[in-house]
Amino acid sequence: MSEEPGSSGRKPAGAAVMQPQVTAAIRAAAFEELAEAGYGKLSMEAVARRAGVSKPTLYRRWSTKEDLVLALISEVAIAAADPPDTGTVRGDLRALLAVMADGLTNPFAARIIPDLLAQAVRVPALREVLAVGIGQSRRARIELLLHRAVERGELPATLNTELALDFIGGPLFLHVMLGGDPTGAEYLDELTDMLLTAFGAAPTK
């Protein structure tokens, strides 16, 4: 069982060292447990057992499974939402859609996301985690892409950015949930063009 300084019962001189390899093992184990058992049956004990660490080592990082799931999903979701800067709104949007499509079709994500959304209907704490910890942070980052396009004169200043943000992620998510493959170049090209038309993009020169 992999442990850290202080986990054997001897108190370290300072704060316990958070070894990166231990944290990485816990993250990997948590993703696997979440994909296999689902959020409802996910337990901190099972994650610790799969990661090969003690429960104190796990609880030193995350005190509840809600905290653990938030850390895992938000890290992946927010990283995937970093807005590309290609110099044009079409290039930015096309690149963003490709990253989002890859994320949604990831084997782990394909099993985890539907389960989390279903559980969020019944678990207020999880719903809050998804809405505030992930949704708002992700939307704020993607909004930068739209603001850049407005500043370049490619999108109108009157653009409803909140509605535009819904448009960007909605079609991809629905397509995947209904069993479609959104990773094809033709599909992403057409979706990009349709979104730009809906946003009132200026004609390309």
Question: What's the gist of this structure?
Answer:
This protein is an all-alpha fold. The chain has nine helices and no strands.
Q: SSE layout and pairings?
A:
Layout: H1 20-37, H2 44-51, H3 55-59, H4 65-80, H5 89-104, H6 107-122, H7 124-151, H8 161-177, H9 185-198
Helix pairs in contact: 1-2, 1-6, 4-7, 5-8, 5-9, 6-7
The number of distinct structural domains comes to 2
- The SSE string, one letter per element, is HHHHHHHHH
| Strand percentage | under 5%
CATH topology heading of the largest domain? Tetracycline Repressor, domain 2
Helical residue percent band: 55-70%
Number of helical regions? 9
For CATH, the homologous superfamily of the largest domain is named as Tetracycline Repressor, domain 2
Taken from the alpha-carbon principal axes, the silhouette is: elongated
CATH class of the largest domain: Mainly Alpha
InterPro entries: DNA-bd_HTH_TetR-type_CS, Homeodomain-like_sf, HTH-type_TetR-like_transc_reg, HTH_TetR, Tet_transcr_reg_TetR-rel_C_sf, TetR_C
Keywords: DNA-binding, Transcription, Transcription regulation
GO molecular function, one term: DNA-binding transcription factor activity
Domain HTH tetR-type: 20-80
Explain this structure.
The longest helix is centred in the last third of the chain and has 28 residues. 67% of the residues lie in helices and 0% in strands. About 3% of the residues have low confidence. The relative contact order is 0.11. With 205 residues, it is mostly helical. It folds into two domains: 44 residues, Orthogonal Bundle (Arc Repressor Mutant, subunit A), CATH 1.10.10.60; 119 residues, Tetracycline Repressor, domain 2, CATH 1.10.357. Keywords: DNA-binding, Transcription, Transcription regulation. One of its GO terms (molecular function) is transcription cis-regulatory region binding. This is TetR family transcriptional regulator.
